[in-house]
Amino acid sequence: MSEALHFHFNVDGENFTSAGEASVQVKKKLRQLGMPPETIRCVSIAMYEGEINMVIHAGGGNADVYVNEDEIVIVLEDHGPGIPNVELAMQEGYSTAPETIRSLGFGAGMGLPNMKRYTDDMKIDTVIGTGTTITMKVYVK
Amino acid sequence: MTVNELALACGFEAVYLPDGEREVGGAYAGDLLSWVMGRASADDVFITIMTNINVVAVASLADVACVVFAEDVTVPQDVLDAAGRKEINLLKSHVPMFETCVAVGRCLK
Ligand SMILES: Nc1ncnc2c1ncn2[C@@H]1O[C@H](COP(=O)(O)OP(=O)(O)OP(=O)(O)O)[C@@H](O)[C@H]1O
Ligand SMILES: [Mg+2]
């Protein structure tokens, strides 16, 4: 496996009930590839948090996953409002999610911190009014 | 201890048990899903009163051993369907959250 495997997903910003489907697909694919369970768990959780964020905060976007022998790279790109203060957004408990989202179990302000915790590298590129791209790497251990 | 044994010992009702022989490692209780994903470990018992479809996604991605719905909550059909697709063990407890946690805690120690 010298060439990276690439999976692309369109994350629908309208459909809340199917939110998370891309992460579920990736989990299945990584299982089929025989990746270690802990690696799969890290990728699944980090990607799910990012995917839900794109649906809740940015009206959907694109998810790309590149599977290499030694690392898995997840790129989440949206054309939402951007994140005005990344440092604040990264703090546990900070959330701008409305009450309706909270009633679904989201909006604890733990998503971005989880993404950081479960990945080996995370980069946030965000421009107000243009969108956000989050790139995460998980090393295969 | 397996999920089957836990259900029996705690008096939980089996809602859907595709893999009752799965081993249980620990437990985590909560309703806010990002907390669950941040704190629960693989093979945990995940105790909650939240019954929407996202619970099943989180259970699958966080790789918990089973979900226990406390407070005798009604499990909606779409949650059952999602659990079927993802092969997630679902149990139901007839007592509130705290009592459910205490029961699980007694079994696990
Ligand atoms: N893709 C995004 N576009 C715009 N804003 C975002 C995006 N992702 C996160 N944010 C902002 O950062 C805040 C913190 O995100 P985080 O994922 O940590 O918490 P949350 O989504 O509000 O709640 P939780 O993830 O616990 O369900 C959000 O409330 C939102 O204001
Ligand atoms: Mg979030």
Please explain how this structure is put together:
The complex is a heterodimer of chains A (141) and B (109). Chain A has 141 residues and is an alpha+beta fold. Chain A has one domain: Histidine kinase-like ATPase, C-terminal domain (Heat Shock Protein 90, 2-Layer Sandwich), CATH 3.30.565.10. Chain A is built from 5 helices and 5 strands. In chain A, α1 runs antiparallel to α2 and α2 packs antiparallel against α5. The relative contact order of chain A is 0.20. Chain B is α/β, with parallel strands linked by helices and 109 residues long. In chain B, 42% of the residues lie in helices and 18% in strands. Chain B has a 5-stranded mixed beta sheet, sandwiched between helices. In chain B, β3, α3 and β4 form a beta-alpha-beta unit. At the A-B interface, α1, α2 and α5 of A face α2 and α3 of B. Bound molecules: adenosine-5'-triphosphate and magnesium ion (MG). The site of magnesium ion has 4 residues of chain A, from α2. The site of adenosine-5'-triphosphate has 23 residues of chain A, from α2 and α5.
Nearest-integer average pLDDT of chain B: 97
> What is the CATH topology descriptor of chain B?
Udp-n-acetylmuramoylalanyl-d-glutamate--2,6- Diaminopimelate Ligase, Chain: A, domain 1
The mean pLDDT of chain A is 94
Helical residue percent band of chain A: 25-40%
Strand coverage percent of chain B: 15-25%
Question: Topology of this protein?
Answer:
The complex is a heterodimer of chains A (141) and B (109).
Chain A: E1 5-12, H1 21-32, H2 37-58, E2 60-67, E3 71-78, H3 86-89, H4 99-102, H5 111-118, E4 121-127, E5 131-139
Antiparallel strand pairs in A: 1-2, 2-3, 3-5, 4-5
Chain B: H1 3-10, E1 13-16, E2 26-29, H2 33-39, E3 44-48, H3 53-61, E4 66-69, H4 77-86, E5 90-92, H5 97-108
